[in-house]
Design a protein that fits this description.
Structural class: alpha+beta
Distance between the termini: 65 Å
Strand content: 15-25%
Number of helices: 7
Helix content: 40-55%
Radius of gyration: 30 Å
Strand order of the largest sheet: 3-2-1-6-5-4
Length: 248
């Protein structure tokens, strides 16, 4: 009889212990799930937007000087008068030196003035070529002067250096008339070095992509304008990001 009582007591102890352990495990799982949801909500709702805003602000600060320099070329009264008076050959060399000075000051890859009436394209080395509406490679110029846009950012291969370059192009106007476009080419290598300093967690990286999903600026410069986002993170995740989903 005492043996049976002890057996029943052990069974009760084991049963109560198992029930207690199960309860503890359930509490731990619920707590862990709640913590994970809170952490995810914080990361997606607060930390990630804050980091993205910080990256955007740093990029804007980096580009502030080149943007200002391009606006300075477009707003230079000597440049405007030169274009209004038919691009005097006597001043062409002086304009080349001016563009070369801006290029050196901004550590840019290229500076330029493209003229609407003549199609002449002047770089820091002087008259480089003549633009044409029929030339597919000159569409960037005519689409800008034909639009109501004051400034446009484009990524392309610089014809002189053959390097992927961010071009800042700004309309040159005087007296309500469009005279041409001032341009400055900024090295994507510099942009890659900037975004390589940003990380999310242990493995998160920052890329700058266009609307079509082509990676334009990557921490590793060999991927600049050569890699699709889907090749880096998968087709489904890339599509979610391009569609603006926060579930990616």
């Amino acid at each position: 009889m005492p043996f049976m009582q002890r057996s029943i007591q052990w069974q009760l102890i084991v049963s109560m212990g198992a029930a207690l352990l199960t309860s503890i495990l359930i509490v731990i799982l619920v707590y862990s799930s709640a913590v994970n949801r809170l952490a995810e909500r914080y990361l997606v709702g607060q930390a990630l937007p804050a980091n993205v805003a910080a990256i955007r602000n740093d990029i804007e600060r980096t580009l502030a000087a080149p943007i200002t320099a391009t606006a300075g070329i477009a707003g230079n009264s000597l440049v405007q008068d030169w274009l209004l008076n038919g691009e005097s050959a006597d001043l062409a060399d002086a304009m080349g030196r001016y563009l070369n000075g801006v290029k050196a000051q901004q550590n840019a890859l290229a500076t330029s003035i493209a003229v609407l009436d003549s199609g002449n394209y002047y770089s820091d080395a002087g008259l480089s070529r003549t633009l044409s509406r029929q030339a597919a490679g000159d569409g960037w110029f005519y689409s800008l002067v034909d639009s109501g846009i004051e400034r446009r950012f484009e990524i392309d291969i610089d014809k002189a250096s053959r390097l992927p370059t961010l071009f800042i192009n700004q309309r040159i106007e005087a007296g309500g008339k469009t005279l041409g476009v001032a341009g400055l080419g900024y090295s994507l290598k510099s942009m890659s070095e900037l975004i390589s300093n940003f990380h999310f967690g242990e493995r998160g990286e920052v890329y700058l992509i266009n609307a079509a999903g082509r990676v334009k600026v990557h921490p590793r410069t060999e991927n600049n304008d050569h890699t699709e986002l889907s090749a880096l993170i998968g087709t489904e995740a890339a599509q979610r990001l391009l569609n603006g989903s926060h579930d990616a």
